[in-house]
Structures are given as structure tokens and as C-alpha cells.
Write a structure and sequence with these properties.
Layout: H1 8-27, H2 32-50, H3 55-62, H4 70-77, E1 79-83, E2 96-103, E3 106-113, H5 119-124, H6 132-147, E4 152-158, H7 165-169, H8 172-185, E5 190-199, H9 200-204, E6 211-215, E7 219-221, H10 225-232, H11 239-246, H12 250-256, E8 261-263, H13 274-292, H14 297-309
Helix pairs in contact: 1-2, 4-13, 6-8, 10-11
Length: about 325
């Protein structure tokens, strides 16, 4: 079982309970009283740790190697998913997946960042960091959705857009800027959900929505804590302090008015139960779509504009 620094005691206790259960069966010895005590202690420990998580703890959960990805959630949330490939300009970028599906019988367009679960898949998907063709593929799907009046659902989960030479040569900045501009004008409901890391412009390129929701232990920021620490203190090891100062967690961003709703996570993080987590996401999608489908095209575009215009503070100089 993969553990994090702050929940190491929980992992060790779970392993001990599992060990006692196995020994009890193998040796035909009744250890139910001891196991019950350990389970009671585990419940108390989980509440104590998970109810008092710091920003850096949430960063660790958002980066957990087993954290569910876009393709993990799709089978639980949608039916008849048909993946679309390529941007019709350069090629296909597997760091972004997208296609057409049905949500409770309603045709929708689904787009999301996609990272790998092991080294081989991470290399294939470029560790979830899209090239320009990935954003152009996403925009092609969005425009198609706009044409056929399909709501758009975006899952955000990336450290950021790929910063390499090839990406810059093919117009990385322009591709991101084009997505921001075009998403602002689409006349269909757009719902964005941050399911892991929402990093920099790479996340924003799928993040101009009528609603922006976040899983409880996700992050959303203009730069990583390590990057901010390198700039502010010339020391990436100060990332923990940077995470606290940057206000990048769901509770902080909800308080600042950047996001709309916090989606509760199962105890310890979404990676502990993907199906249960998908059910939580399903509820917020149902509520959001119910509200947005009753709005006119003008209202959808206008409210999206006002939403982003109201972010931040303005000073008359």
C-alpha cells in the first residue's frame, strides 16, 4: 500500500489489522477482541489526522500516484463514451483525452488531462503535461459541442503545460490563449472539475467554465509550491511553506470565491475508493447541469464573463 508522510501511522495500523486477520484465519485463533480495539484506534486516528490536514498534506494527496484520473472516472460517470483523437493540424496528444458520451442519457462532451499510472504510461502521456496539439484537440471538441448544443465537462489534472522546446515551436502559448478566448464565448454549459493538480496555464486552458468545482484534496494554482519557493526564497525545499502562503487548496479557493463547490473526498483521498468518489462527483454534475440547462445562451456567456471578471481586486490609479 502506498502511503504519504502524514498518514504513515494509519497505513501501519491498517497493515497490522490485516496481518492479525490473516493470522486469525490461518491459525484458527479468535483475535476479534484485539482486532476490534485496533479498528477503534484506527477510526480515532483517521479522524484526528484527516480532519486536521495542512495545505502540504493536500498537495501530497493530489500528487498520489494512485489518485484516480479522467479515464478512471469516465466508466463510473458516463455511458457510450467515444474517444476522439487528433487536432487535425499536427497529431494526437495523449496527455489530453476527450470525446462524446452520455450522462444520465444526456449527450455531453467530456475532456480531461490524463497522466499515467506507471513509468511506461507516463512517458506515453507525457506525465499529463499537454503539448499544443492536446489543447487544439480539446478546442476542436469544444467547438463541436457548441455546434451540436452539448454541455462540456472538463476534468483538470496537470502539473502544467509541457514547457519543452518542441511545444514552444508548435505554439504552446498561443494554443492556451486561444482556448481561454474561445471557451469564454461558447454558448453551452461548461463545468470544470479539478480532480488532482490544477497547475498554471496548462490547467486554465480547460478551466474557463460556468462552474469550477474541486475535489477536497486537489490543488489549483499559477505555479507549483516548489516553483514559488524557488522564486521567493531561492530554495525549492521551502515548498511546504509556499503551499501555505499561496492559498492553493479547495477550502482556501472557495473562501476567495475562485471556485464554486468543494466535492467531498473519501477519507484519506479519492484513491481509496474510486467508485464512491465518482458518486460524489455525479451529484455535483447533476446539480450543475440542472441549473445551467435552464439558462439561455446569452446568460451562459454573460455569467461566465462576470465570474472571471470578478476574480481579484481592482484599484483606480
Amino acid at each position: 500500500m502506498v502511503g504519504l508522510d502524514f498518514d504513515k501511522p494509519i497505513i501501519e495500523l491498517k497493515d497490522k489489522i490485516k496481518e492479525l486477520n490473516e493470522f486469525s484465519i490461518k491459525a484458527n485463533v479468535d483475535l476479534s477482541a484485539e482486532i476490534e480495539k485496533l479498528e477503534s484506534r484506527l477510526a480515532k486516528l483517521q479522524k484526528e489526522i484527516y480532519d486536521n490536514m495542512k495545505p502540504w498534506d493536500r498537495v501530497q494527496i493530489a500528487r498520489h500516484p494512485n489518485r484516480p484520473t479522467t479515464l478512471d472516472y469516465i466508466p463510473y460517470l458516463f455511458t457510450d463514451f467515444f474517444e476522439v483523437h487528433g487536432d487535425r493540424t499536427f497529431g494526437d496528444d495523449e496527455a489530453i483525452v476527450g470525446g462524446i458520451a452520455k450522462f444520465k442519457g444526456l449527450p455531453v462532451t467530456v475532456i480531461g488531462h490524463q497522466r499515467g499510472k506507471d513509468t511506461k504510461e507516463n512517458i506515453r502521456r507525457n506525465f499529463g503535461m499537454p503539448h499544443p496539439e492536446g489543447y487544439r484537440k480539446a478546442l476542436r471538441l469544444m467547438k463541436q459541442a457548441d455546434k451540436f448544443k452539448r454541455p462540456i465537462i472538463c476534468f483538470i489534472d496537470t502539473k502544467g503545460a509541457y514547457p519543452g522546446k518542441a511545444a514552444e515551436e508548435r505554439g504552446q502559448s498561443e494554443a492556451i490563449a486561444k482556448n481561454l478566448f474561445e471557451m469564454a464565448t461558447l454558448k453551452v454549459p461548461i463545468i470544470c472539475i479539478v480532480i488532482g493538480e490544477g497547475g498554471s496555464g496548462g490547467a486554465l486552458a480547460l478551466g474557463v467554465g460556468n462552474y469550477i468545482h474541486m475535489l477536497e484534496n486537489s490543488t489549483f494554482s499559477v505555479i507549483s509550491p516548489e516553483g514559488a519557493a524557488s522564486i521567493l526564497w531561492k530554495d525549492a525545499n521551502q515548498a511546504k511553506q509556499a503551499a501555505e502562503k499561496m492559498k492553493i487548496t479547495a477550502p482556501d479557493l472557495k473562501e476567495l470565491g475562485i471556485i464554486d463547490e468543494i466535492i467531498p473526498e473519501v477519507k484519506g483521498g479519492a484513491h481509496h475508493n474510486v467508485q464512491e468518489q465518482a458518486e460524489e462527483i455525479e451529484q455535483i454534475l447533476l446539480q450543475s447541469l440542472k441549473t445551467l440547462r435552464n439558462k439561455s445562451e446569452e446568460e451562459l456567456v454573460g455569467e461566465r464573463y462576470i465570474k472571471f471578471k470578478n476574480m481579484g481586486a481592482y484599484l483606480n490609479v
